[in-house]
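Case study 2.
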Amino acid sequence: MTQKLVVIGAGMASGRALEHLFDRAPDTYEVTLFNAETRGNYNRIMLSPVLSGDKTYEEIVTHDDDWYRTHGVTCRFGEHVVKIDRKRKVVVGQNGEVPYDKLLIATGSAPFIIPVQGKDLPGVISYRDLDDTNAMIEAAARGGKAVVIGGGLLGLEAAAGLAARGMDVTVVHLMGHLMERQLDEAAGYLLRRALEDKGITVRCRASTAAIVGDARVEGVLLQDDKMIPADLVVMAVGIRPETRLANDAAIQVERGITVDDQMVTSDPDILAMGECVEHDGQLFGLVAPLYDQAKIVAATLADEHAVFAPREVSTKLKVTGCDLFSAGDFAEGEGREDIVFRDPARGIYKRLVIKDDRLIGAVMYGDTSDSGWFFGLVKDGTDIADMRETLIFGPAYQGGAPLDPMVAVAALPDDAEICGCNGVSKGDIVAAIQAGAGDLAAVRAATKASASCGTCSGLVEQVLGVTLGDDFVLPTEQPICGCTSLTHEDVRRLIKAQELKSQPAVWQELGWKTPDGCPTCRPAVNFYLLADWPLDYQDDLQSRFINERKHANIQKDGTFSVMPRMWGGITTANELRAIADAADKYNVATVKVTGGQRIDLLGVTSEDLPHIWADLNAAGMVSGHAYSKGLRTVKTCVGTDHCRFGTQDSTGLGIRLEKALWGSWTPHKVKLGVSGCPRNCAESTCKDLGVICVDSGYQIGVGGAAGMDLKETEPLAHVASEDEVLDLTRAFVQLYRENARYLDRPYKFIAKFGLDWVRERVVDNLDIRAALVDRFEISQSVYRKDPWAEHVEQRADSYRPIATMTLEAAE
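Prediction:
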């Protein structure tokens, strides 16, 4: 007979438990699921990419409405549970009560709010769920200053996300270094330096005395009387098990809801799991043990015997783009010795703690590729005496010879954790493979390994190789999309070789499986055609993302941002008046100075776009292409015009470069910088192409990055004249246009082809360079024009509210 199961809390832990339960005993329970949030299960680990703008909420949903409907789950989302009536065996919600035969409490944890004056002011929030994330996104849209209280993982992710969205962020941390529970002082220093390089201010050994403000938060007062101005304060100082419902129901609670080895509470019909429970005196905050608990909960509910045994866990994280790992005990202690490896140039730090010829702790920063092997040594208590001299270099250099990484993977025990995000062990993956999963996608679908951050994908493929042997072939390059078996490189090569000059020609001659492509391949093919055949191919607006079709960036409320071009960051009083007049005339919500030395007008309606463009055109201004896969900006410093340190006319050179490159379409956005001296005020060393002016001329670097990946430019050439800078820049951009994969930034293009290959064609071979410049100028004869003016003259009617949108493709 079907029993009634009520679950309180629709988080990752209970979601995984339901998955296991439906696999084990699909028809045993009629499930009702309460959740205080208005939504179901999503991957909270991925909230940070949502905050930073790299993912959307829809991309991190684990269980959607269809999943709950398929499994017959009655969802009561957005409804708080008022109480648990154990005598009547009912759960009382805000909208009525539900009887249960079995009850699962998975209420998770609540953020700890430090008890200081002002903690309840508007503008003070915690960081635990999607609502908190959305609140931070909305606050960041208004700009201003943010203070994050707490230098742990959540606090730093919040700080990085807010900084990425343009806020001036300060992290206030009580302890002496960041993430002190996971990192030692040296690694904490490297992490702090990396954050400060991204413009985040960090104050350690700082205690909050009060949060100040009248109608809303205005600042944070520290114990040393230092006042930090703040428009937003994020509390990220810790969590506490959410036990209030259990307490009120007289279920045994200590620090958390106490459970036995079968995850059963003091009431035999009530189970509990996740961050709200305490097992054998231990609380839980990492996802791996929560997923272990999920298996036990499912087994217990299916009337099968299983025992929860907490395993030693490691911490492998990617914090604001920095790889971190820690395991075991790395505190100072008697009888312990350290092995330390540092590579300052690459920002790598490794520390191993040894006692009695056993590895008892490890901390790594910057390079965590061998973390799984080191964690195995810690967990197993392996005698490392024979490898003591080479231990720090990892498994590839034990016994004096390189070790095949497949051998290292084969040696991992079945309980070795492969995917930390989803708590998937090697044994789980092997079982899935033996059940028929033959490639990465199949393993991901069966186990969720590599389904979150993806950093374990290579390790999963190695497990596939070890398990399947010769039956498994490491995957080659993936096709451009499901419409074809051809890769990006195949398509580029065939477009040139077969002189294909239209999309129908590509679909037909290259055997596309769909009539006219899809949203994945159409933008790429459109770019490859216009890059190779600028005089023959007509750019297809329907194959553009919406920002490129509209020539403006769409915002979350459906309005657009308008950013006029300012050559080299230079403007005039008349242009500023025109911008101010336009902001007033079109009720612009926000006027923002960008990091690229431009002014952004945010909140323009679609129907107003051609009108505001016309007004800006009348003042002599053109599109800034802030929406394009093309040249965005050339950032400059004042150079010899005003600066006493300037060695060359960096502003003038920046203007020349921008006027040469504007309007060009490229595989991804391209940003340049020109600094008038090695002090590098224009931040040229992290641009796609950067120029440093020196007394003897110009140092040109390429392949920098300053987003999710942080990378310094690599030296391309040192030249004596501005004209040479101009030629080398156009040649490099054209080489990138003709060879890079669509949506690859220049640094990825360089990594694939090699800087020597690039330098040979752009710098060393003058004939090839000249040919690249010629082809670039041919393309620019078509695209070096203002799309705003063109749309005002030819397409203004399409921006009217009554315009038909039936042909507009979705992004």
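The radius of gyration is 29 Å.
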